[in-house]
């Protein structure tokens, strides 16, 4: 196996983190965090950079909403915090169990084992998956304030569910070969597209908007840590699961989790056009 190109590949990969590091140095602190620490002038300056006309009004809303105390893990079990935290935890975990990391990280393996023998087709298929991922997330950026978070989430999860059920059916009907290989490629592209359009693009937005200010940081940390563990276990067991139950049953297994995600998304309230201070779980 030729590994001479590895240094160049790693060097190219360094470009993105370097740019992210440079750009994050220009990011201002969160005005809500500044208010919670008593740094009102800095918060006012940050808000003025975004929209000078509304800076004072927004600052007043933040001051009324921020209690000035940081939330603890024990606060997550309080009555007003528990339900939104459990919904976010379930959504983050189910995000991983949809199999998105498997499709993105192991797409070449899945395509070859499904019947695509050409390395060139596999590579171009992998590139197509990345392009669809980018295009779907970009579409969400333009549509999220027009049609709302909830509708986008339901569209994304519904598309995921139908695609996974279709992949399950196809792998039951067709024997291994080029036909099922290309069907699998089309299915993976759709899975990645629907995921990027809905759950993938919105999970952090929803997590931020549904959680109260005082516990938002700790709740997101706990939920995403557990979600990362769930994703790691699922990806590490992927090969063993395929060997034991095959791709057809595995796709159905993933579809069951997506169905649960779809049910959860129906209970997530619409927050389009509302500031974080105006979003109150008790009033939903």
TrEMBL record:
Transmembrane segments: 6-24, 82-104, 124-145, 152-174, 180-206, 218-244, 250-268
Entry keyword set: Membrane, Transmembrane, Transmembrane helix
GO cellular component: membrane
GO function terms (MF aspect): carbohydrate:proton symporter activity
Database matches in Pfam families: Sugar_tr (PF00083)
Record membrane topology: Multi-pass membrane protein
Localization per record: Membrane
Residue span(s) of domain Major facilitator superfamily (MFS) profile: 1-272
Family: Belongs to the major facilitator superfamily. Sugar transporter (TC 2.A.1.1) family.
PANTHER family tied to this protein: PLASTIDIC GLUCOSE TRANSPORTER 4
Protein's UniProt name: Major facilitator superfamily (MFS) profile domain-containing protein
Protein's organism: Aquella oligotrophica
């Amino acid at each position: 196996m030729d590994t001479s190109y590895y240094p160049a590949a790693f060097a190219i990969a360094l470009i993105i983190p370097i740019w992210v590091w440079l750009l994050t140095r220009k990011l201002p602190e969160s005005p809500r965090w500044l208010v919670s620490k008593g740094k009102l002038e800095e918060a006012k300056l940050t808000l003025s950079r975004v929209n000078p006309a509304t800076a004072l009004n927004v600052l007043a809303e933040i001051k009324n909403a921020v209690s000035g105390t940081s939330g603890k893990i024990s606060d997550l079990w309080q009555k007003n915090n528990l339900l939104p935290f459990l919904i976010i935890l379930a959504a983050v975990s189910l995000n991983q169990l949809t199999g998105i990391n498997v499709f993105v990280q192991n797409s070449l393996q899945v395509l070859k084992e499904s019947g695509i023998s050409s390395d060139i087709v596999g590579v171009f298929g992998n590139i197509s998956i990345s392009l669809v991922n980018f295009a779907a997330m970009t579409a969400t950026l333009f549509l999220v304030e027009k049609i709302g978070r909830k509708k986008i989430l339901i569209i994304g999860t519904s598309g995921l569910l139908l695609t996974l059920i279709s992949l399950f059916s196809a792998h039951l009907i067709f024997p291994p070969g080029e036909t099922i290989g290309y069907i699998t490629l089309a299915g993976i592209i759709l899975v990645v597209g629907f995921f990027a359009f809905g759950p993938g693009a919105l999970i952090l937005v929803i997590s931020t908007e549904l959680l109260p200010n005082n516990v938002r940081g700790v709740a997101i940390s706990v939920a995403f840590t557990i979600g990362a563990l769930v994703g790691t276990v699922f990806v590490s067991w992927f090969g063993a699961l395929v060997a034991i139950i095959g791709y057809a049953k595995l796709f159905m297994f993933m579809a069951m989790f997506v169905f649960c995600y779809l049910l959860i998304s129906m209970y997530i309230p619409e927050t389009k056009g509302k500031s974080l201070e105006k979003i109150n779980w008790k009033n939903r």
